[in-house]
């Protein structure tokens, strides 16, 4: 089995800077989306550190790390990124309080499993045989409230701020990282995205766009266009990973790796 992937990030219609960051590491079957936050462009710094730290962790893996399971290495990489961001913020008053959400994924072909680690409200979805499911749970004020009180109505939730997250990288010296493993099937498509996408495009439309666009780069572009058509109030990032039974051409693993900073 093999994974092919594409990604795209866009500044949106209202923001000046793009504080989202994503990476595709096909040589390790690792994929990351981070959505930064903080003043003085600190969000850009936090998400950049998160992406580079996770990439660096896998690229510089020593023998001990190779012996660890894929899931353990993924969680350790995210934890390492948290420490890097927190240390950087502690060194500069301009960056204190900066942080970033993260959703990171690793495909383990021999195990036939797809691991997802996350903190914050960036999400992972799975499209499988026409069904579309959210695999991650948002670490947000609203999601936490619903976890404790599933009976809360929309009118109850209206009193809660919708953009407050309760977990992120860089906010403290340690972070609780959720980890999930999903057994894969050929044809599975995983989506990693920031809230600039899932906050503006409903799940049904996201699934339809992915199903209607077999080329992953085209699907990423259509997803971002749809979010912009719905207001584009935030930065928008989408990474798509498809699991295939047969080997794909090597160039396709990097198809569509772009950032759109202006429209």
Automatic annotation (TrEMBL):
PROSITE patterns: PPM_2. Residues 5-243 form the PPM-type phosphatase domain. CDD domains: PP2Cc. One of its GO terms (molecular function) is protein serine/threonine phosphatase activity. It holds the Pfam family PP2C_2. This is Phosphoprotein phosphatase.
